[in-house]
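> run fold Cardiolipin synthase B
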Amino acid sequence: MSKLVFYDGNQIQLLHTGEQFFAALIQSVQQAQHEVLLETYIYANDQTAKLVTQALCDAARRGVCVQVIIDWIGGGNQTAQLQTDFSDAGVQCRLFNPWFKRGLARTHRKIAVIDQSVGFIGGINIIDDCVSDDGRNTPLAFPRWDFAVQVRGNLVSALHKEISAQWLKMGKLQLMQRLKLAVNLRMPPVSSTDHLSQAALVIRDNLRNRSTIQKAYLKALGSARETAILANPYFAPGRKIRNALIKAAERGVEVSLLLGVGDFELQDAVAQSYYPQLLASGVKIFEYRKTKLHAKVAVIDHDWATVGSSNFDGLSLFVNHEANIVVLDPVFADDLKLHLLQGLQDAVQVDPHCVVRLSWPKRLKHRLAYWFYRTVMRIATLGQYR
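> ok
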C-alpha cells in the first residue's frame, strides 16, 4: 500500500447532488484556458450530459486541450456517437479497458481537473440526477442522493498527476515509461504555510494501491472515539471492514450505516445477510428508500471525512479503479455530517427484533445470496475477497 499523503493549504467545497456539481463543473470548463481532464464511469445521453458535452466541445474549439476518459462499460451504447461528436470538436477521448482486454477492472473513478488549478472528485457520474443509472432511465422521485467535492490548493497537483497518468497508461507505453510514471506519482506533496484543509487523494488500482481505500477506512474506524456514520449504496464488504465496524461499536462508538436499497434484489439480500451480526454488536442500520442513494461518504468523529467513488463491495474494494478524498477538517466534516444526519432521518431504521424473527425462507434466501456472491467475488478477485 502506498503511504497516505496529506496535502495542506486546500479550499474544499462539498457539492451535494448533481445540481451543485454540474453547475460548478460546467462553469470551470467554460472558464478553462489551457487544459480540461475528465474521467468518469457513466457518461449518459441525457440533457445534463449534453450540457457537459457542449461545454467540453466549446472549450476544445477555442484551443483548450480536452482529454476525456470513459469506462467502456459505463459509457454504454451511446459511446460511439459521443466519440464522434468529441472528435469533430477536437476533444480527445479514450475508453477504459474495451472488451476486457486488460482483465475485469473498470474505472469507477469520477475525477476532473481544469487548468491544474481546480479539481473535482466524488461519486457523481455524468448523468441526470432525476433518472436511474441502470440503463432503464426510470424517473426518480427525488434527485439522486450523492456528493462530490471541488478542490483548490495543493491537492489539485495530486489529482492532475493521477488522471494524467491514467490517460498515458491507456495509450501505448513502453515498460520504462510506465516505471517513470510510477516514480512520478510517488513524488512528495508541495508544502504550504497557509494551512486551510488537509486532504489526501486515496486511490485503488491493481498495482500500487491494491488496498489503500480499505486500509484508510480501517485506520479511521480503528481510531474512532465517539461516532462513525457511513453511507454506501452497495454493502458487501470483506471480513476486515465488517470486523472494524463491529469492534468500534463494541467499544462504545456510535456506528450508523446508511445503506441504499431497492436497486438490485440480489445486492439487497447480500447486504441483509450481514444484518444479524452487525445489529447484535450495536451497529445501527438505516435503509434509505426516499430516492436512489449513490453516495459513498463517511464522517468519523468530528474531523475525519471521506467522499469518493468506492462502494463497500468486492468490485470496488478489490477489482475496480476507484478514487476517494479524505479530508481532515472539522468544518468540512460537520458540513457533510449534517447531510448524513438528514439522510438518517429520511431513512428507515432496521429493527433488530424484526431481523431476529425473520422467517426461515428469508434467512435461507439471504444465506444463499451471500454464498453465491462470495463465490463469484473470490473468483473475480483471485481469492482476495474474504
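DSSP finds 14 helices and 15 strands in the chain.
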